[in-house]
Amino acid sequence: MMPRVVAQAFARNTAMVNRANAIWARNVLPGGEGWTSAFRAAEAAIARLVGCGADEIAIARSGADALQMLITNYKPLKAGDGVICCDLDYDTMIAAMRWLGTHKGAKVVEFAMPEPATTANILAAYEDVLKRTPEAKLLLVTQVSNKTGLVTPVREIVAMARARGVDTIVDAAHGVACLDFQLEDLGADFVGWSVHKWTSAPLGTGAMYVRKSRLPDIDIAFENRNFPDDDINTRIPSGTVNFAAVMTIPTAVDFHFAVGGAAKERHMRGLRDRWVNAVRELANVEICVPDDPARYCAITSFRLKGMTTDEAARRVQKRLFEVHRIHTIWRGGVRKGPVIRVTPGLFSTPADVDALAKALRAEQAMLL
Fold first, then answer.
1. Which ranges carry the Aminotransferase class V domain (predicted)?
2. What is the pLDDT of residues 180-214, one digit of tens each?
3. Domain residues for 329?
4. SS3 label, residue 169
């Protein structure tokens, strides 16, 4: 959901693009006003948000778009090399890792994240899979799981992999602008994320980060020669994007800073803690992330007793919305079983999560 100031800017930008159209998009207006200057301003805004150089940022159509390009165009990979992912990674990214197996001859190794998770057993799981995959070359790590909300110790995992000669691609789609951090805190060379999620930019905006010294290790996307080879934008497919959406990114970033990253994270953590603490003693509700504040933020998923199939999870989601007007989303793909994800936003209130807790008290036995 876009804040009002961002939605208003998006509407103005859409009207401007519709009015000026090709003369603006082709950069023929006097004074240098045009798509190129707007595009570079958006790159600079994202770089300011995550604390890196603007020349290390490429704007994509989505976080998935950015991550797919990083994964499938990772140049050092050879046939027989190992690539590693886990059950809590985003399904589209798991599919991209599997693509490396079917199209590039990589050995795809998948493992299950421990549940219940702790910092120690998460690190042990990554250490174990790296030890038993000596041919590993590439590791996918998700900063915040879209399935359960688990926050992984990315920096430690990246360092562990690097010590074994393994590169890491980080999916930060639910981390950037939700957690208050800078990319350098992760220690990773390759990161992709969605700008339309927690930064609240318009839909259809994502970003790719490649550490400048590592750019040669990501191949040019589909021979994109619209920029010099040493420009990160060659690593994104060419083609028309939503001009107005990209133009609105600086407004979204300004709004994020006006609220404050720490204040934003504190608000969403508080809402999460409020509903989790309210249902913690319910016998039929299982919270799927640990209580360690380092291992969660806004997102937390739960299971109801008896919710062992995707169809059962769908029923829970449907009932929470139709009876209680509580919007949640079920997620499959977790080795231990499907979950119901709860995601308070910046705009959510204590009353919203209190309503969720009340609904769970009423429905906790619905599958028994």
1. 20-323
2. 999 999 999 999 999 999 999 999 999 999 999 99
3. 261-363
4. strand
